[in-house]
Design a protein that fits this description.
The complex is a heterodimer. By secondary structure, chain A is α/β, with parallel strands linked by helices. Chain A has two domains: about 260 residues, Spore Coat Polysaccharide Biosynthesis Protein SpsA, Chain A; about 80 residues, Hexapeptide repeat proteins (UDP N-Acetylglucosamine Acyltransferase, domain 1). In chain A, strands 1, 4, 5, 6, 8, 9, 10, 11 and 12 form a nine-stranded mixed β-sheet that branches. In chain A, strands 14-17-20-23-26 form a five-stranded parallel β-sheet, with no helix packed on it. In chain A, strands 15-18-21-24-27 form a five-stranded parallel β-sheet, with no helix packed on it. In chain A, a hairpin with a 3-residue loop joins strand 2 and strand 3. In chain B, the strands form six sheets. In chain B, strands 1, 4, 5, 6, 8, 9, 10, 11 and 12 form a nine-stranded mixed β-sheet that branches. Chain B has a seven-stranded parallel β-sheet with strand order 15-18-21-24-27-30-32, with no helix packed on it. Chain B is globular and about 65 Å long. By secondary structure, chain B is α/β, with parallel strands linked by helices. Classes of the chains: A alpha/beta, B alpha/beta. Strand 16 of chain A pairs antiparallel with strand 14 of chain B, so a sheet runs across the interface.
Chain lengths: ~375, ~425
């Protein structure tokens, strides 16, 4: 592959409420067995991108432990590798990453010391499969300076939290609106870009001199008339998980057979860190319907229309409905959980009752767990 | 200088013919167990959990699946700069080229491998038992007694002792005598086939026995050490240990995993069992499904009803199909409206719609009564069974069968249908 990869995984935002208190969004568990960054990492690995940098600064413990070894995505090669870059204090810099462009600027040596002619930049919170080689071919064919991957949303979608683009008939980007109140287009930028490495270095250095730090605002939008910026349409499934509702519905999408088939069975596979957990166990009294259950879980109660992540224990006579139970949660007997997301490593006492009435309720209990 | 205090030699070359068609194409240690594991995962995990990071795996019979499973040992953390796991098949020599003719002969042919690590002790393991054991504790016992040989033993009911190699010890657990499958056992301590040898003594015994055909630990090496007055001790083990050498014991051991609190617990944090996981996604259980008293591996899709069963990874079970008391291995596809009772269905088998398995009166298997018994229906790997077939008890099916292979769409109890050759 003639590109290296940069994954922007720094993000945190208040729209994820309590869920992002203990982890960056890139480390959010998705679809039972994965974390959101697995999708972009697997895409890069499957596209034969060998050198990948993950740029992160917000609460990166969870992400770091997930990326503790690069072997799961096959990056542990002599050529290339997986690098995690958090901000560091140096002789001439003591700032955090002040924006996406700044995070690249602070690690510019990584770009300068590489030899790959192109860079694929992608965010760590997208759930999708993509062959970046096709994107790169398109980029070269269009003689573009930057190519932006976009997804067409149905007319009338609420696009307030996205960047929208307007294309001319040649797919060149004419307008780029960041988080528009009234969207003039239903084409949404997926936060996936390809750009020539030298071009990127030049633009990032120039922006830094001008104290501009945001990749979208200060590079894409600012340069849209000067540079040839093109749009590349992603036809397949793409979601990003920037809000609680998005997170919930993206997970629930995996209860659909066609989505499971696309991600879990069709080539290529999505990889993740292997946790060495035993098979899921269904005891007498278990009653699981239309749900995903991950390894290491033990189920004694009723689970309906829900996603049960890894190593979850569900006690006798529980009723779990339309909910997401994150990793390593213990739920005591006779508990009712409906329309909820239960935060990982939580312990829910017996006889508890949680129900999200208008929207999804996030359950965070900090009980001690007593293990016999 | 390379130096390892103790290295393990894992005997994984055996066929295990009493497992019938399950071992037609794979060595017994590579047979699936407990949903997502293979039998060899248990000794390999024990090694790394005991701090033994150098393991030679001796292969001979049908080694492909074992080789791909073990790879460079990543799942067990046995990919090491020095040591790690090494697969040791028989090899051609300038003279006296031979297959591994016996357990000890296999070790003898790999003296050079062991010598390379300058070990003090050699741990001999076999790849066909289900157990969790800390070999380090056994080594401490070995050192404390200044033993030359320590044999792990398990107390068994005295009436069963005649099926085992029995060791007779004094009060200090020093072995004074031993007998192989005795009619009137003098002790109930059965050898588990796990030995720690001082390298010096083992090497001497192996070289002395070089010309013995079928050089075997139980038959030759242990008696040789005994005659030479080497101090031999018995290390008593009291945990769960299961030989899964027959289809019945294999079935039993799997079924024990689904008890509410199984005697052999896979869910303990401090002694994990590792395996190569090819499939990661969660399993899906549909709206009309029932799953009770079962364990299910990653990525399986259940549309039917599953009771008292062990289901592997990537399995599909169709709508209205009822599975009970069965073992379904990885990647098996079962159609709609089937009824499967007490089946052992090996990897990649494809079962059509409306197939009934394990019906009728139990009739003893005509060709292999000692293998296919206890009303179990055994289906070999990559077998195919067409729609609407009715299969009796104590039966076996292996190969890509079609309707024409059955008489009146059925295989009565006690019959065998083995169609597969070496490669088909």
């Amino acid at each position: 592959m003639r590109a290296l990869g940069i994954i922007l995984a720094g993000g945190n935002n208040h729209r994820m409420k309590e869920l992002s208190q203990k982890r960056a969004i890139s480390a959010m568990p998705v679809a039972g067995s994965y974390r959101s960054i697995d999708f972009v990492l697997s895409n890069m690995s499957n596209s034969h991108i060998q050198r990948v940098a993950v740029l992160t600064q917000y609460n990166s413990r969870s992400l770091n432990s997930h990326l503790s070894s690069s072997k799961w995505w096959d990056f542990g090669r002599k050529q290339g590798g997986l690098y995690v870059f958090t901000p560091t204090v140096t002789a001439d810099n003591s700032s955090w990453y002040r924006g996406t462009a700044d995070s690249i600027y602070q690690n510019l040596d990584f770009l300068k010391n590489s030899h790959e002619p192109y860079v694929v930049i992608a965010s760590g919170d997208g759930v999708y499969k993509m062959d970046y080689n096709k994107l790169l071919e398109y980029h070269i064919e269009k003689k573009a300076d930057i190519t932006v991957v976009y997804k067409e949303f149905p007319e009338g979608s609420n696009l307030e939290r996205f960047g929208t683009i307007v294309l001319n008939e040649d797919s060149r980007i004419e307008e780029f609106d960041e988080k528009p109140i009234i969207a003039t287009s239903n084409l949404v930028s997926c936060g996936i870009y390809v750009i020539r490495r030298r071009q990127l270095i030049e633009m990032i250095e120039k922006s830094a001199l001008e104290e501009r730090y945001d990749f979208v605002k200060d590079i894409l939008i600012r340069y849209r008339s000067l540079k040839r910026i093109y749009g590349y349409k992603l036809e397949e499934y793409w979601r990003n998980i920037a809000t609680v509702d998005d997170y919930f519905s993206t997970n629930m999408d995996f209860l659909k057979e066609d989505i499971r088939d696309y991600f879990f069975r069709q080539y290529p596979d999505v990889y993740s860190k292997v946790d060495d957990l035993p098979p899921a166990k269904y005891n007498i009294g278990a009653n699981v319907r239309n749900s995903l259950v991950s390894s290491g879980s033990i189920i004694n109660g009723t689970v309906e229309d829900s996603i049960v992540f890894k190593k979850v224990f569900i006690g006798n006579n529980c009723y779990i409905k339309n909910s997401i139970i994150l990793n390593d949660v213990y739920i005591g007997d006779n508990t009712h959980i409906e329309n909820c997301i239960v935060e990982s490593r939580d312990t829910i006492r017996a006889n508890s009752y949680y129900k999200g009435d208008d929207g999804i309720k996030i359950v965070v209990e900090k009980n001690d767990r007593f293990i016999l | 200088m390379i130096k390892k205090e103790m290295i393990a030699m894992l005997l994984a070359g055996g066929q295990g013919s009493r497992l019938g068609v399950l071992t037609s194409r794979v060595a017994k240690p590579a047979v699936a167990f407990g949903g997502k594991y293979r039998i060899i995962d248990f000794p390999l995990s024990n090694c790394i959990n005991s701090g033994v990071d150098t393991v030679g795996v001796l292969t001979q019979y049908q080694p492909l699946r074992l080789n791909t499973h073990i790879g460079i040992g990543i799942p067990w953390d046995l990919d090491r700069n020095v040591g790690g796991v090494t697969v040791l098949p028989p090899y051609e020599k300038s003279s006296n080229t031979d297959w591994y003719t016996g357990t000890a002969n296999a070790i003898y042919q790999n003296i050079e491998y062991m010598e390379g690590y300058n070990p003090e002790y050699i741990l001999i393991l076999s790849g066909d038992h289900i157990y969790k054991m800390d070999y380090e504790v056994m080594l401490d016992f070995h050192k404390k007694n200044n033993a030359a040989v320590t044999i792990a033993v398990m107390p068994v009911p005295i009436e069963e002792a005649k099926r085992f190699g029995i060791l007779i010890t004094d009060d200090n657990k020093k072995i004074v005598d031993f007998e192989e499958k005795p009619q009137n056992p003098r002790s109930n301590l059965a050898s588990m086939g796990i030995y720690i040898f001082n390298w010096k003594e083992l090497k001497e015994a192996l070289i002395k026995g070089a010309n013995q055909s079928g050089l075997d630990f139980g038959k030759h090496v242990i008696p040789f050490c005994h005659e030479n007055n080497c101090p031999m001790y018995a290390y008593e083990f009291h945990g769960y240990w299961k030989d899964v050498g027959t289809l019945d014991s294999y079935w039993q051991a799997n079924m024990e995993l689904i008890d509410l609190v199984p005697e052999f617990n896979l869910y303990e944090e401090y002694w994990k069992i590792y395996t190569k996981s090819e499939i990661l996604p969660p399993q899906y259980v549909s709206k009309s499904s029932v799953v009770e008293k079962s364990i299910i591996g990653e990525g399986s899709s259940i549309f039917g009803k599953v009771y008292n069963s062990v289901i592997g990874c990537g399995v599909t079970i169709g709508e209205n199909t009822v599975i009970s008391d069965s073992i379904i291995m990885n990647h098996v596809v079962i159609g709609k409206d089937c009824e499967i009772h007490k089946g052992i269905i090996a990897e990649h088998a494809v079962i059509g719609d409306r197939v009934k398995m394990g019906v009728g009166d139990p009739v003893e298997n005509e060709e292999f009564p000692h293998i296919y018994a206890q009303e179990i229906v055994t289906v070999g790997e990559k077998s195919q069974i067409p729609d609407d077939i009715i299969i009796g008890k104590n039966t076996v099916i292996f190969g890509e069968t079609v309707s024409a292979d059955y008489v009146e769409q059925s295989l009565p109890s006690g019959k065998s249908l083995i169609k597969a050759g070496d490669w088909s």
